[in-house]
Amino acid sequence: MPPPAAGLPKRIIKETERLVADSPPGISAIPHDDNLRYFDVVIDGPSDSAFEGGKFKLELFLPEEYPMGAPKVRFMTKIYHPNIDKLGRICLDILKDKWSPALQIRTVLLSIQALLSAPNPDDPLNNECAQHYKQNLLDAQRVSREWTQKYAKADDA
Questions:
Q1: 56: which strand partners?
Q2: Residue 2 has pLDDT above 70, yes or no
Q3: Residue 92: which of 128, 125, 50, 133 has the closest Cα?
Q4: pLDDT given at position 7
Q5: Are 83 and 94 in contact, with CB atoms under 8 Å apart?
Q6: In the list 23, 38, 61, 87, which could disulfide-bond 32, CB 3.0-4.6 Å?
Q7: Residue 25 — pLDDT band, cuts 50, 70, 90?
Q8: Residues recognised as catalytic
Q9: Per-residue H/E/C for the chain
């Protein structure tokens, strides 16, 4: 029986090894044993953000065309954020038209973490939430905090 890494490009193996051995602060990404292209990701809500104290579960998948094509990433944890829709899809330029093979899984996860620190209601995926952020930032952040408490409690993750 060949090891699960058999047939994976060296780049994916190297990136995975580095990610597991040296994760960025507040981010954990663990590949599935049976499919090393699938990762279970947990991103801690950044301090000084409406998502502080939350642990957000995401799934990340490296498609066959990776690294020429971007990884597929989505939130599994419900989140109230202008750039993340109710299906967990993420509006982030490097996951779409700004993807470059020079980027890595680590870069993508750091960018998602940064998006939690700085929501961008001018490029929304969740229009209702984006309007809320634009019209009443403090109240929108309050709802984001409530959702974080309700759905992303650290002890549930």
A1: 43
A2: no
A3: 125
A4: 81
A5: no
A6: 38
A7: very high
A8: 91
A9: CCCCCCCCCHHHHHHHHHHHHCCCCCEEEEECCCCCCEEEEEEECCCCCCCCCEEEEEEEECCCCCCCCCCEEEECCCCCECCECCCCEECCHHHCCCCCCCCCHHHHHHHHHHHHHCCCCCCCCCHHHHHHHHHCHHHHHHHHHHHHHHHCECCCC
Give the Cα separation of 22 and 16 in Å (integer).
10
Residues 42 and 146: their CA atoms lie apart, in Å, by: 19
31 pairs with which residues across the strands? 39
Sorted by sequence, the CB contacts under 8 Å of residue 85 that are 6+ apart come out as: 91, 125, 126
What is the model's pTM? 0.92
8 A C-beta contact, residue 75 and residue 152: no
Helix axes of 10-21 and 105-117: crossing angle, nearest 10 degrees? 50
Q: How confident is the model at residue 157 (pLDDT cuts 50, 70, 90)?
A: very low
